[in-house]
């Protein structure tokens, strides 16, 4: 008879093939969290399979949906759905009430990752000579100076599919490859070179404003790190933990003695060597290590690599300001007073332009999810005349005459065309439909590079 070995308490129990791990553990009195009652509506029963993963059956539809939603790795399974047929060794990832509060998707919108080992590029930057000129500037000037630099550096990192982990003092940490992007290594180098170029453009401004020589140093390392969320429930932040993080930080610091601005580790060099030009290399012993390692100073990307990345940058989506921005249309395709409906994978988005502003929102009235505007008005036959915006900036829904403030999304008036009983003419069979009061789902939008972009997360 096959057995289950549950860690960290090292409890081993027999089971009959076909039983779920959840049922087996409960029948033997082994505590395992399960907030949804075993219906795959949460991930509190998740386990980390250490041995026997190859013999486990594939995820069923319910487990697969949760795994895709939370981006669970292949060896993290839901105990309520997994029905093993052979010996299995696993670690329970939700052990007590504190873990339960952190992991319960029934109680909050996001999930706190238990952590997953991934190969990523760690990016560390630091301001050269920060201590010396920070003593000469007022705190307000110092804050302005750093924020001006961080705003540009952060945008460059996100444009290259990097994730900004944190800003600490004058330092910045970012991670490339969080989602397993194949070109993460090269993009990390590209982001670093673009950041240095941005700093070079800032130098005259800082010299004129403050009389300082502003520069930064960057260190990059490709290695394995545990990627997961850290923080109290509701205040979590994705981060990386492991030796690779410490190595990247020390590589950045090695620039100081080497007199360089950008150094990368040998593993990263091996990943990008066909696409970069190297200025020099050094052999150093990083702080806290015994062995010497080789670090490479990157001069630039080769022309072909730069062309390839620039082609990739012309994508239908970009990451910026912590949001995913989708390309909607060319700027000149939407005149003042016009609106258009654009199809995205998530939903249809209506975009309107007035004399001063650009608005974007889900093209579905919050009441009954009926479209404000037809995607192709010429094919509209039975629907009422299209929704419109009045002179006060209120979007008036054509279906039941609800009004929504386009500046805030708040309800100005609700379903004025319904009868006193909440019934809509022609939709009597639906009964009272006066409920479901919800504001308009406004979406951020911006114009850049000749296109209108919509922020969808």
From TrEMBL:
Residues 326-454 form the Rieske domain. Keywords: 2Fe-2S, Cell membrane, Iron, Iron-sulfur, Membrane, Metal-binding. Residues 121-252 form the Guanylate cyclase domain. One of its GO terms (molecular function) is 2 iron, 2 sulfur cluster binding. Its main location: membrane. It is found in: Cell membrane. GO terms for biological process: cAMP biosynthetic process; intracellular signal transduction. Gene3D superfamilies: 3.10.20.30, Nucleotide cyclase, Rieske [2Fe-2S] iron-sulphur domain. This is 2Fe-2S iron-sulfur cluster binding domain-containing protein. It comes from Stappia albiluteola.
């Amino acid at each position: 008879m096959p057995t289950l070995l549950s860690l960290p308490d090292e409890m081993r129990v027999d089971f009959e093939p076909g039983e779920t791990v959840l049922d087996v553990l409960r029948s033997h009195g082994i505590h395992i969290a399960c907030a949804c009652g075993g219906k795959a509506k949460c991930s509190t029963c998740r386990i980390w399979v250490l041995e026997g993963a190859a013999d486990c059956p594939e995820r069923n539809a319910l487990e697969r949906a949760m795994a895709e939603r939370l981006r669970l790795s292949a060896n993290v399974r839901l105990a309520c759905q997994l029905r093993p047929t052979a010996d299995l060794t696993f670690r329970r990832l939700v052990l007590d009430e504190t873990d339960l509060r952190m992991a319960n998707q029934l109680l909050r919108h996001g999930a706190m990752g238990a952590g997953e080992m991934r190969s990523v590029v760690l990016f560390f930057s630091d301001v050269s000579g920060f201590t010396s000129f920070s003593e000469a500037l007022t705190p307000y000037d110092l804050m302005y100076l750093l924020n001006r630099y961080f705003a540009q550096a952060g945008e460059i990192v996100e444009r290259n599919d990097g994730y900004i982990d944190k800003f600490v003092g004058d330092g910045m940490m970012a991670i490339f490859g969080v989602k397993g992007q194949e070109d993460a290594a090269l993009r990390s180098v590209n982001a670093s070179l673009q950041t240095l170029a941005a700093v070079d453009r800032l130098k005259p401004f800082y010299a004129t404003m403050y009389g300082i020589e502003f520069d930064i140093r960057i260190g990059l390392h490709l290695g394995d790190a545990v990627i997961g969320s850290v923080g109290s429930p509701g205040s979590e932040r994705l981060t990386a933990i492991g030796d690779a993080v410490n190595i990247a930080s020390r590589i950045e610091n090695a620039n100081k003695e080497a007199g360089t601005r950008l150094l990368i580790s040998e593993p990263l060099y091996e990943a990008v060597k066909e696409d970069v030009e190297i200025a020099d290399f050094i052999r150093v012993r990083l702080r806290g290590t015994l062995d010497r390692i080789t670090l490479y100073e990157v001069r630039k990307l080769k022309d072909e690599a730069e062309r390839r990345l620039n082609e990739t940058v012309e994508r239908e989506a970009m990451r910026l300001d912590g949001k995913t921005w989708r390309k909607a249309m060319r700027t000149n395709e939407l005149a003042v007073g016009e609106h258009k409906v654009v199809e995205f994978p998530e939903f249809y988005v209506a975009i309107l332009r007035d004399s001063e502003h650009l608005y974007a929102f889900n093209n579905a009235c919050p009441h009954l999810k009926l479209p404000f505007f037809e995607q192709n008005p010429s094919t509209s036959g039975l629907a009422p005349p299209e929704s419109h915006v009045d002179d006060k900036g209120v979007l008036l829904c054509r279906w039941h005459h609800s009004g929504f403030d386009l500046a805030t999304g708040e309800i100005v008036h609700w379903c004025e065309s319904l009868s006193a009983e909440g019934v809509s003419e022609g939709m009597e069979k639906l009964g009272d439909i006066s409920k479901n009061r919800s504001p308009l789902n406004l979406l951020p939008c911006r114009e850049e590079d000749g296109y209108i972009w919509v922020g969808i997360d």
